[in-house]
Structures are given as C-alpha cells and as structure tokens.
C-alpha cells in the first residue's frame, strides 16, 4: 500500500508546530487558528477556557445533523525544550531528509521527516484531522466526526475534563474516541495511570543539640519515603503481572525532595513529591490511602512534641490508567482503518482513560513514535503522516462502526 501525504496536511502541521504552545504558555493562537479555519467551513467550535482565560479546549462537530460519531482527540500543548541540545530550531517545522547530527550521519535517513517540538506529540495528528475537515463535513457517512483538542495535557490532563463536562452538558454522546498520540499507527488498548502527590511535612525546629524538644521534618519525611519504597518493592514482588508493559507491575518513585536550612538546626519543614504509575488492574486510591494511613500513625508521636506538626498531602496530577479491549468496536475500526492486525500497550499516560471513564469506548492510535516525543530533534516521518491521512480518510468514508 502506498501512502501519499497531502500538501495541505503537511502545511498545516508546519503551521501548528511553529506556534509556541509549551504548557506554560497560552494555546489561544493555535485554538483561534483552528476555530477560524473551521468557521470558514461553516463549523462552529465550542471553546472552554481555563480560569484566567489564557488557554482553551476546542470541541467541534463536523457533519451537522448526523448521528454522533467518533471523537478525534488531541492535545494542543507541548513539553518545553529548555536545556535540550537541538540541531534545528524547535519551532522551525523544517522538513529534511538528510542527517541532522553527527550521530545520525552514520546511517542514511532515506525518509523525509518533519522536525520540531510537537511534530510527533502531537500537533501533526491535529493538523491532518483539520486538513481533512471538509471530507468529514461532506462525507456520506451517517456519523459526524468530533474534534476535541485540549490544553494542559502534558502537565496532568487538566483541560480535557472541562471539555468532556461541556460535551455532556450539551447532550452530545459520541460513539467512540480515537486519541491520536504517537503509536506508529498501531492501535493501543491500555496504559498505566500516573498519579503524583506533594507531601509537606511540618516539624518543630530547635538547636541541633536539643533534639528531644524538636520534630525533625526531614527524618519524618524519610520514614514516609521509606514506606513508599517498601510499597514499590511489594508491587515488584507480589503484583500479578500485566504482560506487554515494559515494566509489567505498578511502580512508585520519589522525584523531588527539599528540606533543611543548616547543619545545626533541626529542620522544621520538608517537602517531597512522588508518583505512582499503576497498572490498569491496580487500585491507585488504595495505594495512596496506605501512604496517608502510615503518615497518620507517625503523626501521633510528632504531635506530642508539637501539636501542629504533621503531614499534608496534595494531589498534583491525576491521569487515570486506560484499559480498552481488542474486542471494542473502536479498536476493530482503528485496526481496519490502519490496516493493522496488531494491538499494543503504551508506556505513557494519555487522555484515553478520562474518555473511557466518561463512558466513551476509546483507543489510542496516531502517527509517529513516542521515542521521539519530548526529545531534542523531535520529528515525525512524512510516511507516518501519510498513513494517518489514509486512516482519517477511511474514517470519513466509514458507514458503520462495529
Ligand atoms: Zn502527547
């Protein structure tokens, strides 16, 4: 099968990559561009904003009057590139088919690639969908296609929750959702959850010669961290394996720790951040309860010395795990459209679990490879974009979702 990428898809992908939508920036340039593009085709977009109106989700239905159909979901934000060694401008959206770096020079790159932050993760998917908007509008399919483009995915899937709530308010009940994260166009039916928490520990400070009158915040934090490590060892030892993941059990990890002001002061404050990456078959709420219960037991002795000493936990990111099925109609549809008999699992978090938890059968399938995402010299091959274009054109022509 030969795959041909339309000029329009490539140009739109370049246009979107050139917009700086790192998660700590506004994404309105991109969202307004998509809104205006769709408005030119007579399609109205619904925007749902964050609290300070600097970012928005966009939801649009293509094929007015048709039955609700498949959502094409993508996030508009990207990770930053600070400190990364890029050989091209991350916003250049340059297309090249010759070696970029010395490391690359050892092998011949025989396929053209689109370079830039967000090229693989995941503006190209949005661009190819947008380039084929007229096809979705004019198709003879009885089903509409819905665009759901979110903000703040990379920092914890925050935007999409409002988008889904708004969709429900509007009484729109899509049949299925395809999340176009980079899977090399192989339908992915599961990923782990990602849950991050901050733990602030309050102790009681004292001169370090007077430890009995103090509560050492670092030492108490370390006890809870030790508990987390024991839990992680327990997952590795005891958890039923979920084969297919690189790490086939849940993990726990502490990512940051801050505490202490001087060698001779018992520290009053400490703070650390940790995460669970839970299997779709494991209960992350139970994991977190176990940590909190452990901390509460430790608090009893702390409060005897200082009544306001203790632990405070704060969730900072909650990306639910995703578990679809090879038997779901949307998975089989994605397999047919991609010409791909396999399914896969992915090691990264996506919005798929949030759509699935909202009652919408979901699959993850998009162009490019996650090994290029978040990396310097991120790229997607034009061959992958062409496959994506075939996939979406096939969707426009789909008369039945089964
Ligand atoms: Zn992504």
Automatic annotation (TrEMBL):
Tree of life domain: Bacteria
| Entry keywords, A to Z | Amino-acid biosynthesis, Arginine biosynthesis, Cobalt, Cytoplasm, Hydrolase, Metal-binding, Zinc
Task: Kindly list the GO molecular function terms attached to this UniProt entry.
Answer: acetylornithine deacetylase activity
Q: Which Pfam families match?
A: M20_dimer, Peptidase_M20
Database matches in InterPro entries = AcOrn-deacetyl, ArgE/DapE_CS, Bact_exopeptidase_dim_dom, Peptidase_M20, Peptidase_M20_dimer, Peptidase_M20A
Q: Which CDD domains match?
A: M20_ArgE
Where do the Peptidase M20 dimerisation domain residues begin and end?
189-298
Provide the cofactor list for this protein. Zn(2+)
Q: What class of enzyme is it?
A: hydrolase
The EC number of this protein is 3.5.1.16
Gene3D superfamilies referenced in this protein's UniProt entry, alphabetically = 3.30.70.360, Zn peptidases
Q: Which residues form the signal peptide?
A: none
Q: Please report which protein family the annotation says this sequence is part of.
A: Belongs to the peptidase M20A family. ArgE subfamily.
Write down the NCBIfam families for this protein, in alphabetical order.
Answer: AcOrn-deacetyl (TIGR01892), PRK07522.1 (NF005710)
This protein is called: Acetylornithine deacetylase
According to its UniProt entry, this protein's organism is Variovorax ureilyticus
As recorded in Swiss-Prot or TrEMBL, the protein's gene is named argE
């Amino acid at each position: 099968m030969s795959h041909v990428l339309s000029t329009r898809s490539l140009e739109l992908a370049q246009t979107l990559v050139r917009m700086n939508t790192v998660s700590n920036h506004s994404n309105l340039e991109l969202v307004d561009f998509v809104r205006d593009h769709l408005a030119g085709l007579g399609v109205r977009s619904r925007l749902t904003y964050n609290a300070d109106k600097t970012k928005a989700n966009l939801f649009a239905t293509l094929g007015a009057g048709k039955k609700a159909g498949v959502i094409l979901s993508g996030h508009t934000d990207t990770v930053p590139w600070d400190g990364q060694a890029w050989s091209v401008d991350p916003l250049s959206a340059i297309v090249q088919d010759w070696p970029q770096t010395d490391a690359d020079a050892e092998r011949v790159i025989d396929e053209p690639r689109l370079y830039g932050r967000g090229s693989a993760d995941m503006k190209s998917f949005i661009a190819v969908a947008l380039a084929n908007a007229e096809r979705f509008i004019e198709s003879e399919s009885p089903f509409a296609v819905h665009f759901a483009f979110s903000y703040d995915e990379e920092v914890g899937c925050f935007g999409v929750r409002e988008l889904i709530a708004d969709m429900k308010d509007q009484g729109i009940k899509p049949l299925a959702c395809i999340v176009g994260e980079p899977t090399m166009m192989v339908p992915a039916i599961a990923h782990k959850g990602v849950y991050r928490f901050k733990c602030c520990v309050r102790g009681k400070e004292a001169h370090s010669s007077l430890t009995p009158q103090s509560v050492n915040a670092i030492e108490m934090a370390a006890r809870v961290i030790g508990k987390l490590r024991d839990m992680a060892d327990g997952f590795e030892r005891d958890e039923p394996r979920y084969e297919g993941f690189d790490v086939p059990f849940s993990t726990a990890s502490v990512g940051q720790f801050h505490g202490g002001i001087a060698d001779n002061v018992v520290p009053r404050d400490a703070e650390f951040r940790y995460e669970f990456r839970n299997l779709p078959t494991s209960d992350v709420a139970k994991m977190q309860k176990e940590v909190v219960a452990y901390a509460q037991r430790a608090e009893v002795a702390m409060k005897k010395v200082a009544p306001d000493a203790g632990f405070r936990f704060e969730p900072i990111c909650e990306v639910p795990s995703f578990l679809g099925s090879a038997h779901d109609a949307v998975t089989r549809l994605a397999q047919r459209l991609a010409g791909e008999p396999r399914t896969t699992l992915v090691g990264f978090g996506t919005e798929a679990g949030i759509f699935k938890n909202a009652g919408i059968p979901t699959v993850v399938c998009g162009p490019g490879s996650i090994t290029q995402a978040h990396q310097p010299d991120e790229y997607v091959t034009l061959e992958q974009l062409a496959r994506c274009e075939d996939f979406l054109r096939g969707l426009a022509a789909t008369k039945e979702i089964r």
